[in-house]
Write a structure and sequence with these properties.
The protein has 276 residues and is of the alpha/beta class. The protein contains ten helices and eight strands. The chain has an eight-stranded mixed beta sheet with strand order 1-2-4-3-5-6-7-8, sandwiched between helices. 47% of the residues are buried.
Amino acid sequence: MPTFSAPDGTQLSYRVTGDGDPVVCIPGGPADSRYLGDLGGLSAHRRLIVLDLRGTGRSAVPEDTSTYRCDRLVDDVEALREHLGLPRIDLLGHSAGTNIATQYAARYPEKVAKLALIGPGGRAAGVEISAETRHGIARLRADEPWFPAAFAALQAITEGTGSDWEAIAPFFCGRWDTAARENHAAGRPANQEAVALFAAEGAFDPEGTRAALAACEAPVLLLTGEFDLNSPPVSAAEFAEVFPDATLVVQPGAGHSPWLDDAGAFVATTAAFLRG
């Protein structure tokens, strides 16, 4: 896998899949980017440049672990753009990676051609998600055989009395089948220090980010799943209002990784946006 040097000297890795115009992809987690695969076949339309965030995948662990903070990871994306020699980039982020992509667009609006936020986490822009909202999304799955145990675990987590995150994994998938289980395992973060420090104090400045994004002229796609417990459609809609030129798409029957639940629908929507 090709590598490049971050501003602090940390060696970072990325993988290239497909042909065509490049789109830089930022995984969530922070987790090994392999869980993204080729985003359901998006690589047939675009050349995917998929970054391994520092301390994950094949990227090195930094000497200064405070650089795991979300706002500081923006510097790594800019270093990748410079390494690729691109004056502007199409940027795609998934889950927690959308917070990095959002802050990149706020800091470097002139260097973003298009911004695709998949399963968007809006913490960088101050979008809060209530327990009631998450419970409402969860109840859409009440007919599933795994629902009673998963919902009990979800209630305990949102009430602060439980922490069984594995028990609620089915809520993040449109179908809790073998492919979903494998993808969930692949996307499980291995570097817990990176996870813990991602949202450390100072990582987010919602007011400043919102103000900067109000001047961002790049078209933005926010794509979430109908059943996405992490990024409920109502919250994604609130997030979309932050951008001057945003399109919200709710993929029917999909969870937090919509390319798994209906690759055709996901690729058609995302590829059309990136072409437009």
